[in-house]
Structure formats: structure tokens, C-alpha cells
Amino acid sequence: MSTKFFDERLGHLKSLIASMGGCVEQMLKEANMIIFKKPSDKKKIYQIIQEREIEIDSLQVKLGKYCYRILAVQSPVAKDLRAILSIISANTSLERMGDLSFEIAKKGRELKEDPLLETSLDCLEELFVHISLMVVDCLDAFINEDEKLARHVILQDQRADSLKDKICLELKTCILKNKELIDTCIQLVGVAEKLERVGDQATNIAEEVVFLQTGLDIKHQEEK
Prior knowledge:
The chain is mostly helical. It is built from six helices and no strands.
């Protein structure tokens, strides 16, 4: 397979990844808006999120078929093979991120306001911002094959875990003091957990960049 031939196809695959990633970024922004901005057109925003999820699913199928066709017909080796395998993995991660973003929006649509939850909501918004930045950075790292930025994303996962744990602890304390808030607190815990899982998927994509550039599989290994 000629370098030019492969580069053209790799560019097309990356454009599909970028489109999927753009949908995920927008879904997170819109889910954030539903939870924290309380827009009057919440129903319309939710419908837009649903449409983006459908688009991500469609792109996942299209990209997957294209990757497997290249593997079957062209039989790439070395870094070319790693590139295709990394794209297949990123494709799966982005589809999962879309599912999680949709689930977050769905839970956010059902949330009820209460002044007693203000501190927890502030923490949750901080987690939203942190995860959104991880998503943006992991996509930039993947498209540009930026190993340094990818490793930065991997390290940010620890902060995401800490924020999620802090939110869950505060909400459990709130439940003990205010039994009438049990349902709302459980919904918020669900949002925090799903956001943290979006961060995990962003970390997976960043790890694929390291794999692509070095050939090393660092999944499940502690970053030094």
C-alpha cells in the first residue's frame, strides 16, 4: 500500500472521527445547558441531543465498515496497522461517549431545583467543565497524533475521579440530612458517574495516541 494512498484514507477516517467528536462536544454542552441554565426550550435542546446521538451511531457504523475494509483488502503493517486499530478503538469510545452524554441529558431533564443542593451542583458543574476539556484535548491529540497532549489527558483522569468522589460524598451527606431530596440526589449521583465514565473514554482515546506513536499499550498501567 503506497504512503499517499494510505494517508488519503487515514485523513478521511480522521475526518469521520472529528465529526463524531464534534457531536459529543456539542451534546455535553447542551446537557450542561439543560442542567444548569434551565432554558425555556429544554425540550427542543433535548431533541437536538437525540438527533446527535443518532448521527454518532450512523458515523460509527460507517467508520467501522471502512476500517475493516482497509484491514481486509490492504493488510497494513507496523504504524499503518496501529493507526487503523487506534481508529477502531476511538470509534467505539466516541460512540459510548455519545450514549453517556444522551443519558446525562435525560437525567438532567428530570432534575428538580433545591437551594440545599447548590454546593453539589457547583461541584458537578466543575466536573462538567473538566470532562469537556478532556474530550476536546483527547480529540485534538488524536487528530494531530500529539503524544504530549495525550499524556496530559491521561493524567487529568485522576482529577475527574476525585471530583466525582467528592460530589457523591456530598450528595450522600445531603440525603442523610434531607430525606425528601433522595430522588434528586440519586439522579445527580448518576450524572456524576456518567460524566466520569465519559472521562474514562476520553482517556482511552488518549492512550491510543500513545500506542500509535510508541507501539506501547499503557492501558491499565499507572502513569508516572
